[in-house]
C-alpha cells in the first residue's frame, strides 16, 4: 500500500503560512519503516478538493488530508469528501457528545453559562458533520475529532492537533505494515562531472541490481560549496552495498573525484 498526503488551504498556496505537514508526515512514516509516495496541495475550493478526492478514493492508497474540516465558510473538506463519495453529511452520533463536552468545558473556563441550543453552538455542530459511515479520529488537543472513510484520514490543519492524530491512525490501523521492507541508502558527492555523463552508469547499475534505484541530486554550489552531484543508490540492503561498490568502481576507472557521505 502507498501513502499519500493532501494539504488543504489557501494560506499555504498564497505563502501566508508555510506548510509543516509534509516533513512531519515523512518523519512519522519513516519512524515506522514506511514512506510517503506522493503529496498534493489544494486551495479552499470545494469542487477542486472534491475532484482530487474522487481520484484518490478511486485508488488503493492510504491518504492523510490536513485542513479544511472546520465549520467556517472557507472550510470545504468535509463537504468535498461527501460529494466525492456521493454520501450525505450527518452529525456523527459519537462526535456530537465530544464536541458538546468541549463547548461546555470552554464555557466553564470562561466562567460563562452555555446554551447548547444557541445558534453559534448549533453552527459548531458542523465540525462533527461527516460523510455517512465515517469513523472518528480522536483529537488529544481539544477533543474535537477528525474522521476516517475509505482509507482516507481527515485531520485539522493545526499541527498540534494533526500530528498526534496521524500518529494514532498509523498505530491503530496500519501497525501490520510497519518495518515490513528493509531499506538502505548510500550516496556520494561527485565533483567535476556533468549529470548527462553519469546517466549510462546509473542505467547500468539499475539494470544489474533490480532491487535498487539510483538517484542524482545536482547542486550548483548555491550554499558556497563546490558544484557537485549527490549520486547514490537506495533499496533493499543486500543489493545497496554491492551496487554502491560497483558505482564507485566505475567512477574510479573514470578517475572521477568523489567523496562518500
Automatic annotation (TrEMBL):
Pfam families: MoCF_biosynth (PF00994). SMART domains: MoCF_biosynth (SM00852). CDD domains: cinA. Gene3D superfamilies: MoaB/Mog-like domain. Residues 4-177 form the MoaB/Mog domain. It comes from the Bacteria. This is Competence/damage-inducible protein A. The lineage of its organism: Bacteria, Pseudomonadati, Pseudomonadota, Betaproteobacteria, Burkholderiales.
